Amino acid sequence: MKKIIIAIDGFSSTGKSTLAKQLAKELGYVYVDTGAMYRAVTYFAMQNHWVSEAHLDKEQVVQNLNKVQLRFQFNDVLGFAEMYLNGVNVEKEIRTLEVSQNVSRIAEISEVRAKLVQQQQEMGQDKGIVMDGRDIGTVVFPKAELKIFMTASAETRAQRRYQELLGKSQKVTYNEVLENVQQRDYIDTHRDDSPLVQAEDAVVIDNSDLTREEQFTKVLALVNQKIR
Ligand code: DC
């Protein structure tokens, strides 16, 4: 069977990572969550007080990018790779609403994107990879054999993210989460560098009314067409 690159792009909280993890497990592929990389750089900038809701010191972020070392390490118990920032596991820290509120502005910085895209391309050299993000099928792997573009209504996505954050005992309201989802949609689709757009050859999956299983079955059929 042929090894391929599967690129999954789409709006935030559309369940990209759930699908990507399912596929990676089924196929024995490596899963890379590129959002975690942008989140880790954001967390680094927050720790150094270069970004907050009110301010962004872009120059400092860019000048200190060489001090950011990112690594994914597979966790056998969880069944996926966790993000390490300068040797420290930051998987929990990068998933907070505060990081979500700052990440789109960090992801707008071209120097940040260039560094992370290069690392992502290196990870895909041997194929056999499922990568999710916003620009995977358009910028990182424009020649990926299978491209999926995921979407769902903002309300459906906010509800899912809200439940997820509650499950992690984070104190948030549904409206805060909905506002964050809408803000990120806007910034992600309007930024100058690598905005979120659907690749021409991507297959669109709107999962507003699909269960996880239905979605997985649908995409696995597409994968099988490519690898057999
Ligand atoms: O997938 P996520 O919600 O964890 O991503 C966090 C943010 O990172 C998202 O708002 C936009 C940005 N991002 C990006 O610009 N490009 C990617 N390939 C992945 C994420």
Secondary-structure element order, as H and E? EHEHHEEEHHEHEHHEH
Radius of gyration: 17 Å
Task: Bin the strand percentage.
Answer: 15-25%
Q: What class, by secondary structure content?
A: alpha/beta
- Report strand order across the widest sheet: 2-6-1-7-8
- Quickly give the CATH architecture: 3-Layer(aba) Sandwich
Helix percent band: 40-55%
N-to-C CA distance: 6 Å
Which fold name fills CATH's third level, the topology?
Answer: Rossmann fold
Number of folding domains? 1
Query: Helical region count?
Result: 9
Give the overall average pLDDT: 96
Which ranges are low-confidence, i.e. pLDDT below 50, for 5 or more consecutive residues? none
Q: How would a textbook summarize the main sheet?
A: 5 strands, parallel
Report the CATH C-level class: Alpha Beta
Report the bound ligands by name, code or SMILES. 2'-deoxycytidine-5'-monophosphate
Per CATH, the superfamily is: P-loop containing nucleotide triphosphate hydrolases
Total beta-strand segments: 8
Please provide a written account of the structure.
The strands form two sheets. This protein has a five-stranded parallel beta sheet with strand order 2-6-1-7-8. Strands 3-4-5 form a three-stranded antiparallel beta sheet, with helices on one face. It has helices at 16-27, 34-47, 58-63, 97-106, 110-123, 136-140, 154-167, 174-190, 212-227; strands at residues 5-10, 30-33, 70-75, 80-85, 88-89, 129-133, 146-151, 203-206. α2 (34-47) crosses α5 (110-123), α4 (97-106) packs parallel to α8 and α7 packs across α8 (174-190). It is α/β, with parallel strands linked by helices and 228 residues long. The protein is globular and about 50 Å long. The longest helix has 17 residues, at 174-190. The protein has a single domain (5-219), classed as Rossmann fold (3-Layer(aba) Sandwich), CATH 3.40.50. The structure holds 2'-deoxycytidine-5'-monophosphate (DC). Residues 12, 34-35, 38-39, 103-104, 107, 133-135, 184, 188 line the site of 2'-deoxycytidine-5'-monophosphate.
